[in-house]
Structure formats: C-alpha cells, structure tokens
Amino acid sequence: MESLFLQASGSPLTGLLPMFLMLGVIVVFMVLPQRKKAKEQKNFEEALDKGNEVVTASGMLGRIDKIEGAIVTLNVGNKTYIRVTKNSISKGLTDAVHAKDTDK
Predict the structure, then answer these.
(1) In whole angstroms, how far apart are CA 87 and each of 54, 90, 101?
(2) How much of the chain, in percent, has pLDDT values that exceed 70?
(3) Which residues of the chain have pLDDT under 70?
(4) I need a surface site. Which of 48, 75, 92, 102 has the fewest CB within 10 A?
(5) Which residues touch 11 (CB under 8 Å, ≥6 apart)?
(6) pTM: predicted TM-score of the whole model, two decimal places
C-alpha cells in the first residue's frame, strides 16, 4: 500500500506541465488567428471608400454611396439606399463574392 503513495511523489511542476502545454496550444491555434482576423477586418473597415461594392454580414450586396463616421449608406438597387454601421460590412463575404466575380 505504501508504494502507491510513493509513486505520486515528484516535482510539483510536472503536474502543471500538461496544463501549460494545453494553454499554449489554445493560444497558438485559437487566440492568435482570431486576433489576426480582427485586425484584417479593422483595416478593411478603415479602407472603405465611396464606390466600393461590399457585402454586409447579413448578406446584403451594395455599393457605398456615402460614409459619415461609423455609418455607411449603401445603394442596393435603383435609388434604394440603406444605412448600416461600418462594422456590419464583412471582409470575408465581400472577398468571397468578388472572388466569384473575377472567376467569370
């Protein structure tokens, strides 16, 4: 019976090592890519300009008519305008739609 208790002895750091490794994996595979994606979205929002064709996060397509601070006015059809916030314009969806347009 005493041998069971003797096997558990050792450095306290060896018990924490797996937790530190899991934390490292989480940071590398989840946190860093998310930060990169957020930075790309922010740069995309700052580069928006009148005349750009964009797609909102809800899937609406339009051409930027006016930018007033954080509000963007999109022309979505024949003299049909909607106002959306800048952060509702999706870089990923815009890139996906325009990639299909260039393939044609």
Answers:
(1) 12, 7, 23
(2) 86
(3) 1-10, 100-104
(4) 102
(5) none
(6) 0.73
